[in-house]
Amino acid sequence: MPATTPPSTAAPAFDPEAIRADFPALDQTVYDDAPLVYLDNAATSQKPQVVIDRMNAYYARENSNVHRGVHALSQGASEAYEQARETLARFIHAPDPDTVVWTKGTTDGLNLIASSFGPTVVDEGDEILLTEMEHHANIVPWQMLAERTGASIRVLPITDTGELRLDRLDDLLSEQTALVAISHVSNALGTVNPIDAIIDAAHAQGVPVVVDGAQSAPHRPVDVQAMDADFFVFSGHKMFGPTGIGVMYGKRKHLEAMPPYQGGGDMIDRVSFEGTTYDDIPHKFEAGTPNISGAIALGTAAEYILNVGRDEMHAYESDLLDYATRRLEAIEGLRLIGTAEEKTSVLSFVLDDVHPYDAGTFLDRLGIAVRTGNHCTEPLMDRLGLPGTIRASLAGYNTRADVDALVEGIRKTQDLFG
Ligand code: PLP
Q1: Residue 338 CA, ligand 1 centroid: distance in Å
Q2: Quick check: CB of 399 below 6 Å from ligand 1?
Q3: I want to staple 138 with a disulfide (CB 3.0 to 4.6 A). Which of 9, 42, 62, 212 is the partner?
Q4: Coil vs helix vs strand at 348
């Protein structure tokens, strides 16, 4: 029989130029006609036109409160809002949309967990285990919980290259450990933490794990069931969605056992002055009128990423990160901060004799948007002995031309300040 070519099953090649064209904010100049090179995606990403259109359409035609009205607009809004929840459940492979709670973002989700779940597992004398690379949002709520309960904070250290010291995990995960809270990907270093190994080790001791997914959900496939996270939180605005909306995923058994975080309308079953009963999850945690347009448009952002192809975007960003790493490494007087084996989309660096703030300000005049400072990771900067870094962070719409512009900008910065 003649050999036949099997039909191609490959997804269409990832096309960053086509993606770029979907994001109107990328097509502009700043200051003296400098084309914008947007490399501050770890702080917040730009939004594709479909997300902007979805928000506008909601306010133009569909605006109505959810879960409250019998009229057409309210029913339509409720349906779109709940459909978005289903999309986000699919996005992180949650077992069921009821385990997806809308929040204002990662910070809100972590505060919710610390306030509501925290006191159910953390007692006086217990320990909460964090890592040295956490964002303030994954430190301060736990310190507040520790203060309230009489618990203490323990910290898993990092190596000089920005990887977790797993060799210290056995020591630090003790009888006293009541909870572990850890970022999946570091916003300041880009390190991808070995989350499965840490969750396995914690679970072996019966300790629940809260995962801060703010920097992973936008960039790599996430499967909360395979990971076996007890909680996984992230923000919409870092993954092409609106600000003021995010997700807290929690295992059903935890969500059902946890008390409500805030009280009010929409989270109740029945209210009387003698007492109140609460609605089922997820509504038990969603008191008051929610960010309806934000949730619906975040659903659109998640669909957008799923349609583009999450694996494809991840592979493209990894390749771009490799390219950027090679180009930055070749610059004399530049030191990369965070050189872990496995990284996602973040390039933190310092320049000899140039303060990060000066570098960031000068790059900005050239149209290059980077972030400078401690990136809300002061304890990490203390550990590294740095006042801060310059951080370029990538998204699927960035290209090698953006990286080349950054390299050129760094050279000019060095010439000016050197
Ligand atoms: N955690 C990490 C790792 C982050 O990068 C950020 C934001 O930069 C946060 C938490 C807080 O996210 P948000 O400000 O959207 O609540």
Answers
A1: 18
A2: no
A3: 212
A4: strand
The torsion angles phi and psi of 21, rounded to 5 degrees, stand at -65, -20
Active-site residue, 376 included: yes
> Residue 89 is part of which domain span?
51-307
How many angstroms does the Cα of residue 218 sit away from the middle of ligand 1? 12
DSSP for 162-227, written as a single string: S-B-GGGHHHHS-TTEEEEEEESB-TTT-BBP-HHHHHHHHHHTT--EEEE-TTTTTTS---HHHH
| Residue after which a domain boundary falls, among 307, 327, 359 | 307
Backbone dihedral region for residue 333 (phi beyond 0: left; psi -120 to 50: alpha; all else: beta):
left
Domain count, the chain: 2
Find the CATH number of the domain harbouring 261. Answer: 3.40.640.10
pLDDT in tens, 251-272: 999 999 999 999 999 899 999 9
Looking at 43, 166, 169, 376, which residue is catalytic? 376
In terms of domains, do 280 and 387 share one? no
> Is there an atom of ligand 1 within 6 Å of 138 CB?
yes
Decide: helix, strand or coil at residue 335.
strand
CA 243–ligand 1 middle distance (angstroms): 12
Regarding whether 209 and 342 lie in a shared domain, the answer is no
Rounded Cα distance between 142 and 62, Å, is 39
Residue 243 CA, closest ligand 1 atom number: 15
Number of neighbours of residue 167 by Cβ within 10 angstroms? 9
* Other CB atoms within 10 A of residue 269 CB: 11
111 lines ligand 1 (CB under 6 A): no
Structure tokens given for 258: 């946890």
Please report, for residues 16, 179, 240, 396, the alpha-carbon distance to residue 23 in angstroms, rounded to integers and kept in the order given. 11, 40, 9, 11
Q: Does 280 lie in the same domain as 167?
A: yes
Both 255 and 390 in a single domain?
no
pLDDT tens digits for range 121-171: 999 999 999 999 999 999 999 999 999 999 999 999 999 999 999 999 999
Q: Are residues 195 and 277 in the same domain?
A: yes
212 lines ligand 1 (CB under 6 A): yes
